[in-house]
Write a structure and sequence with these properties.
Its cofactor is Mg(2+); thiamine diphosphate. The protein has 31 helices and 30 strands. It is α/β, with parallel strands linked by helices. The protein is elongated, with a radius of gyration of 33 Å.
Length: 953
């Protein structure tokens, strides 16, 4: 094979053309050491040069150059000088760092002083066109092998690679003015003295201080300053607990007394809820950026100890802020994520979040990731914590450049952060800054790290703090005097002492000061709803008809849809003429009516555009033109709010976190996440536990996110049957033993007091109403909806427009309305149930001719429990046995939740009997016959009027 063909076979013809400049000849070279032959494009310069000199020079300047590719492996990144940031002490033999390795390239020492003409593909020459080989090597090593280690050559875009090379190879580019150095010193002073102050005042308190990586504060401020300079107005941050208080104080600029008062053990809470520890709280602040004199809004999103759980939440909130500002390119709103090294490498949600970064409906146009690389995870050595060389290697999957930097070189850190901010603004892509540092104390201030890392911590105890090292350097070079440095320290210490004095006057903690997502104007001054009422959720019939008409048409001319879809649209048109709606049409009408009222609707999840069960079809696809689509919902009204429906990546944890963050940004949006199947929220359980269930209690964070979870026992196996309602009900905060007072505003007050709302609608109309109620309520609560599968096409699961027109509302309980209701004194059994099983019960009752003896009542809202309506139903059928019937197994579903609440409302005077499947380990069977046998068994029990005779409850 010829050398040119060899090159093309290895790189591909197109890559070879892109990489080779016009003056390149392609040659083949067999290295004397073992290994396969290598082929490189070279630039021939300077007559009389030996072949091997040219070969080496070309190799250096080729985009496959070892310095650019692997220089970071030998860069001096560890401030302690005892570990290798890449977990490997091996030095690549083809990196020339000493004269004795010249023989590797058939070079003599004298060859190093020969001059070479520089090709246009390099920036190391600056204004010089020729350099000696010795100087070339020196400059490459200074760029790639010192305190900054660059990983970018895996990026498959030549322009982006060249941009990075220019930022780091250009001679003298990393220069700072005296004022910039003084500013950096002042920021280091604030960062370190804040930690010192906390250590002096509260030596026995956990605070997860930043000691060992104090440079993170000026690093973040540099990113914000540079971004503000380029037009950013809103920065949303997410981070773990280490350094959070310092960031709140010196980046967000929260009042110090608000932080210090958190350490008072006698502080009383002014708000309901459990609150959270001080190093989990968030903050929102609008202020002037002093570096640019421009207004900037900074928010730090509250985060639990699930370190990386906040990542997608920040991204969703950022996306929403960009959407509402019309910032489609991310030039006004951006996100910064701070990570720990162990969590960044170890937690899968990091990978999920990265894979959202370039998806059209999820991209935030680039995030700056800052990794606080402690080189340890709690007590775990990094060699036991990851399989990759660096903790940041996950970022390579999206071609994000990774800038490793020694955190004890403040100027290198600041320069890298400035470049990172520029990169994000220029290319709208993620970038990672890896601050290789150390943790001066243990995992927290009460922890003893010498138990497990004795050698590391012996070195840390000897380590000179970065502030002293940098101050000594600036004093030596005359940038500042010792007196000025000491005055800067005294000035900040005085600020802390004064704030500490003011903090002693605070006896009440108002956690609203710690909101990361305030909604101005939504609540009244005291944070309470404007009223405890909810208007009727029905809409005019002409609106229903208009939405139904659009839902059954194709608004675009010349748009050819699938023939099967044509039948579905004709079916919708027929239902509209008959004034009825199935599940899909009722959802269409709920969304469409909210869009008319100016409410943005966003529906996200796996396959939501069509619907997992092929029922929704909100995005139509032209059968003749690739990627031509139509969203009829966006053609309903001339000035409607926009509708966003987007298929997500095959992610639950990341995507649900994203949608939660999106819902944080505004109360005037209906944000829904749909699981492909019911229990597919399993892998998103962390978001549910840490943010959705507990968000208001911990952070007074109202959030109206809606979870649509397909649920129903239909013999389809465990993973495709149950949405695990028992989990949501177990986490509901209404008291099973408290008999409520049925006041006039009981229904709305009960919703306001709960942590979330759990419903299982049995009619399309009720689904329509509960979606609209979610927005019309004067507050926001998460809404969990167990949605059907078989009911999507069940002939009985349709609703008349009469149940959806003006004046109608959501029914928390749907009572019996048949023959049994007309003669309640003759009813022998009252069955309570929820969801799909109602239709099985009605069919079985009819087949046994028990319509007058058995009444069936549906609980549509399960939590908060409708005590008032349940009591009303039970009182109507005084002589009837009470039965709870569910299709789920006894240890799952709803029974354990509803049973004690029935006992409370009935004063334990009447038992509530259980009918359903026996307890089991798995939520459903995958055997169709077994499913049908168990269904028949519990239906027989439900209508056996002697089933409970002689039994005690």
């Amino acid at each position: 094979m010829t050398p040119l063909r060899l090159l093309m076979s290895r790189l591909g013809a197109q890559a070879a053309r892109l990489l080779a400049p016009r003056d390149v000849q392609v040659v083949s070279w067999q290295r004397r050491s073992s290994g396969p032959p290598a082929t490189f494009p070279i630039s021939r310069g300077g007559g009389g040069s030996s072949y091997m000199e040219e070969m080496y020079f070309a190799w250096l300047e080729n985009p496959r150059s070892v310095h650019k590719i692997r220089g970071h492996h030998v860069a001096q990144l560890d401030p302690l000088g005892i570990l290798d940031a890449d977990l490997d002490s091996f030095v690549p033999s083809d990196l020339i760092t000493t004269i004795d390795k010249l023989a590797f390239y058939d070079l003599q020492e004298a060859d190093l002083d020969k001059e070479f003409q520089l090709p246009t593909t390099t920036f190391i020459g600056g204004s010089e066109s020729t350099l000696s080989l010795r100087e070339i090597i020196r400059r490459l090593e200074n760029t790639y092998c010192q305190h900054i280690g660059l990983e970018f050559m895996f990026i498959n875009d030549v322009e982006q690679c060249q941009w990075i090379r220019q930022k780091f190879e250009t001679p003298g580019i990393m220069q700072f003015s005296s004022q910039e150095k003084r500013t950096l010193l002042a920021r280091l002073v604030r960062s370190m003295r804040f930690e010192d102050f906390l250590a002096r005042k509260w030596s026995s308190e956990k605070r997860f201080g930043l000691e060992g990586c104090e440079v993170m504060i000026p690093a973040l401020k540099t990113i914000i300053d540079k971004s503000s300079e380029m037009g950013i107005e809103n920065v949303i941050l997410g981070m773990p607990h280490r350094g959070r208080l310092n960031v709140l104080a010196n980046v967000i600029r929260k009042d110090l007394e608000q932080i210090f008062c958190q350490f008072d053990p006698k502080l009383e809470a002014a708000d309901e809820g459990s609150g959270d520890v001080k190093y989990h709280l968030g903050m929102y602040h609008e202020r002037i950026n002093r570096a640019t004199n421009r207004n900037i809004t900074l928010s730090l999103v509250a985060n639990p100890s699930h370190l990386e759980a906040v990542d997608p939440v920040v991204q969703g909130k950022t996306k929403a802020e960009q959407f509402y500002r019309g910032d489609s390119e991310g030039k006004k709103v951006m996100s910064i994520l701070v990570h720990g090294d162990a969590a960044f490498a170890g937690q899968g949600v990091v990978y999920e979040t990265f894979h959202l970064s370039d998806l059209p409906s999820y991209t935030t146009n680039g995030t700056v990731h800052v990794v606080v690389n402690n080189q340890i995870g709690f007590t775990t050595d990094p060699r036991m914590a990851r399989s990759s060389p660096y903790p940041t290697d996950v970022a390579r999957v999206v071609n994000a450049p990774i800038f490793h930097v020694n955190a004890d070189d403040p100027e290198a850190v600041i320069y890298v952060c400035s470049v990172a901010a520029e990169w994000r603004n220029t290319f709208n892509k993620d970038v990672v800054v890896d601050l290789v540092c150390y943790r001066r104390r243990g995992h927290n201030e009460m922890d003893e790290p010498m138990f497990t890392q004795p050698l590391m911590y012996k070195q840390i105890h000897r380590q000179v703090p970065v502030l002293k090292k940098y101050a000594d350097r600036l004093i030596a070079e005359g940038t500042v005097t010792l007196q000025e440095f000491e005055e800067e320290i005294a000035k900040y210490d005085r600020i802390c002492e004064e704030a500490y004095g003011r903090s002693k006057d605070k006896k009440i903690l108002d956690i609203k000061h710690w909101l990361d997502s305030p909604w101005p104007g939504f609540f009244n001054v005291d944070g309470e709803p404007k009223s405890m009422t909810c208007p009727a959720t029905g809409i005019p019939e002409d609106t229903l008809i208009h939405i139904g008409t659009v839902a059954s048409s194709v608004p675009l001319e010349g748009f050819r849809i699938h023939t099967g879809l044509s039948r579905i649209l004709r079916g919708r048109a027929d239902m509209t003429r008959k004034r009825t709606a199935d599940w899909a049409l009722a959802e269409y009408m709920a969304f469409g009516s909210l869009l008319q009222e100016g409410i943005h609707v966003r529906l996200s999840g796996q396959d939501v555009e069509r619907g997992t069960f092929s029922h929704r079809h909100h995005v139509l696809h032209d059968q003749d033109i690739d990627r031509r689509t139509c969203v009829p919902m966006n053609h309903l009204w001339p000035n409607q709010a926009p509708y966003t429906v987007c298929n997500s990546s095959l992610s639950e944890y990341g995507v649900l976190g994203f949608e939660l963050g999106y819902a944080m940004a505004s109360p005037n949006a209906l944000v829904l996440w749909e699981a492909q199947f019911g229990d597919f929220h399993n892998t998103a359980q962390c978001i549910i536990d840490q943010f959705i269930s507990t968000g208001q209690a911990k952070w007074v964070r109202h959030n109206g996110i809606v979870l649509l979870l397909p649920h129903g026992m239909e013999g389809m196996g465990p993973e495709h049957s149950s949405a695990r309602p028992e989990r949501f009900l177990q986490m509901s905060n209404d008291d099973s033993d408290a008999y409520p007072a049925f006041t006039e505003d009981f229904e709305v007050r009960q919703l306001y007091d709960c942590n979330w709302i759990v419903v299982n609608c049995s009619t399309p109309a009720n689904y329509f109403h509960v979606l609209r109620r979610q927005i019309l309520l004067p507050f926001r609560k998460p809404l969990i909806i167990f949605t059907p599968k078989s009911l999507l096409r069940h002939p009985e699961a349709k609703s008349s427009f009469d149940q959806m027109v003006s004046g109608t509302s959501f029914q928390r309980v749907i009572p019996e309305d048949g023959a049994a209701a007309r003669t309640p004194e003759q009813v022998r059994r009252l069955i309570f149930c929820t969801g799909k099983v109602y239709y099985d019960l009605v069919k079985e009752r009819s087949s046994q001719g028990l319509e007058e003896q058995v009444a069936i009542t549906r609980l549509e809202q399960i939590s908060p429990f409708p005590f008032d309506l349940v009591k009303q139903e039970a009182d109507q059928y005084q002589g009837a046995e009470l039965v709870w019937c569910q299709e789920e197994h006894k240890n799952m579903g709803y029974y354990d939740y509803i049973s004690p609440r029935f006992m409370t409302i009935l004063s334990r005077a009447r038992p509530i009997w259980y009918v359903g499947r026996d307890p089991a380990a798995a939520p459903a069977t995958g055997n169709r016959n077994t499913h049908l046998v168990s269904l028949k068994k519990f239906l027989d029990t439900a209508f056996s009027l002697q089933a409970f005779e002689g039994k005690t409850f």
